[in-house]
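Need residues for this backbone.
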């Protein structure tokens, strides 16, 4: 079945619930302090329109970058249905606050170790760097809440390419069809 661009917001909601959904692993883009681009895969943990939630470690480059430039891009791709969604928004970071604690408590305990490396992510590997220390608990666990304000949805198909842009303003989305 062809993708209906009008369904994009409900598709993002589904992606956060369904592990096999192609929108489950978007590319998160940020800018470093020199304005250089950085991009990497993340897991979409929740989508409560218009807020996309991602988890990370406070010591990663993305979190450091978002602290100085909170503008973030999320790029979603569905290869089967040939759909690209380019989203832009502003991230708020939650570490050891009520938001972070709620998400931490909802994670399976086995996943806590992902945020408990004794050495900082991205530093040179040593045996110690491979270790997880449960004593760190949720110290570095960080929830990124990205409030989306813009979506560019493109569906390619043999019959007709479709492209829509969504803008969030005054508490609602407006949608405009644009030339693909
Ligand atoms: C399938 C997949 C899912 C990933 N999910 C996350 C994620 O949800 N959060 C995260 O911080 N990193 C995730 N990563 C790792 C990032 O892509 C990245 O390598 C790492 O976070 C360091 O990025 P940074 O130094 O730019 O912050 C994932 C990687 C893969 C391959």
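Answer:
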């Amino acid at each position: 079945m062809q993708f209906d661009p009008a369904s994009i917001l409900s598709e993002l909601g589904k992606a956060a619930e369904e592990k096999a959904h192609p929108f489950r692993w978007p590319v998160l883009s940020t800018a470093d302090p020199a304005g250089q681009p950085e991009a990497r895969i993340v897991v979409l943990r929740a989508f409560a329109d218009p807020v996309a939630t991602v988890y990370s470690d406070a010591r990663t480059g993305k979190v450091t970058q978002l602290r100085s430039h909170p503008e973030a891009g999320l790029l979603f791709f569905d290869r089967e249905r040939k759909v690209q969604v380019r989203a832009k928004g502003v991230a708020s970071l939650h570490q050891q606050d009520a938001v972070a604690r709620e998400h931490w408590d909802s994670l399976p305990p086995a996943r806590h170790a992902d945020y408990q490396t004794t050495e900082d992510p991205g530093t040179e590997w040593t045996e110690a760097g491979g270790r997880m220390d449960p004593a760190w608990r949720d110290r570095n666990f960080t929830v990124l809440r990205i409030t989306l304000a813009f979506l560019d949805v493109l569906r390619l198909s043999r019959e007709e390419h479709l492209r829509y842009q969504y803008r969030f303003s005054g508490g609602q989305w407006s949608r405009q069809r644009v030339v693909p």
